[in-house]
Amino acid sequence: MTSDSSNKASRRKPTKREPARPTTPIDPHYSKLTRKSTLGSTQHRVSSVKEAQAQNRMEVTQRMEAQPSDNEGEVQEQYIGFEPLLHETHRRVYGNESGKRASVTADSKFALIAALVALIVFFAGGYYLWSHRPVRITVNDSPLEIRIGSTLDEVYAASGAANTPGNLVSLGGNLLEEGTGYRYSSNLGDQPLSLEEMSAFRVHGGEVLWFGDGWDRTEDYDVASYNDIPPRLAFEGEGGAVGYVKQWGVAGRQETRVGKVSGETIEGVTAQDSRDCIVALRDIVPANEERLVAIAFDGGPDANYTESCLQILEQHDAKATFFFSVDNVNANLEQAKKVVASSSQVCCKTNPAVELTALGQDDLVAELNHTHDTLADLIGVDSTILRPTNGAFSHETWLMSQGIMAATVAWNTNGLDWTTPGAEAIVENALAGVRPGSVISLLDGGGDRSQTVEALPAIIERLQADGYRLVTISELLASDPEVPADVASGNAHMPADATWPVEIVESVG
To answer: How many domains does the chain have?
Structure first.
């Protein structure tokens, strides 16, 4: 017993060492140089602590091997006791620095947001002041300062003008009630303002306004009945190579009205004026006298000649327009498709055996619809440009056509190749009187057209040598600023809000 007690006494419990504390505090407000010096000193102490830990770990291991295992927990504490020093040193060196960086970043973001808000407020306030600034105007010969953008009612109130208001009157103009009409009338300079203009008026500055007595106001009414006023057909020009719809007609409207206060009935009141349809008959005049001409082939497609004409055009970098009839397309569909796929144009040609000017309205409409719709189905060509049989399309034919076609094309020079006068004669005939905007008529079908094929290269080469460019009918129409763009496109259909005329009026020019 005594021996064990003395042995325990000799193995005293080791005294724990207190962790070494840094003698110099790490101040986050030190200069970079001071911070770097302090950091170096601290790193040196950390290195010393790590060396002490390693030494202590070695001693603990030796003691554990030499001493009984029941003291292992006490000896282990010597090693554990060094950990707080390392953690504390790391916190002092790095913890405060990262906190400072976070604080600086947050402050910078706050300052930036505050600056942006201040800038927005500044510009918003400036815009408000500018858009509400006072400006000077003149009212009834007196100067007035008023906020920009003010309405006419606000100007009238600010001016102190005192005018006699108008009266309420019946549909027939009879007095119903005094002083309940419009408060005032107004002029802007020398120009009287309509009710719509008075409502839309806003002050900009510098205006000269006059206020006068108010207008009478007509009582409200109910529409008992109405009828449309159809437009009329007017022609512009005496004739030419082309005819086209320059202006689509719009129906007017007449109403029978019944006054809500007086009960008076007024018939035939025009609620909307009609707008006449205008067809222009003239030659094409390209803008700036551009040297453009168009060759218009007729009689095809033909199995023997159409493709030859197309190849010659392509070899000379030239274009033309081919007017195809339904029967010929049905007979030579592949030839027609080749022209459609080329740079040239395909338009409508009515049945050569049918003289359109001899048809009544029903037969005419049927022929025009059949030609247009069938070509659209067979070769995908939606064309509202027509070559009528023999180029004939009279005023009465236009009136009966119901707006199915928007343009007709005849010619102003003709190769007369149907007479087979020989290739040289065809060339001279085709070029006689050619000028910018000319339409040259040739045939690619309907008989022996070998002379036309022979003459075509010379016609193209002489035109090109004279500075002309051979284009399609649509391109020729588009070169003239008088021709509406939808008509020139080749597929101008009558708008949904338009109405075709039912009578012809005198020429408009």
So the answer is: 3
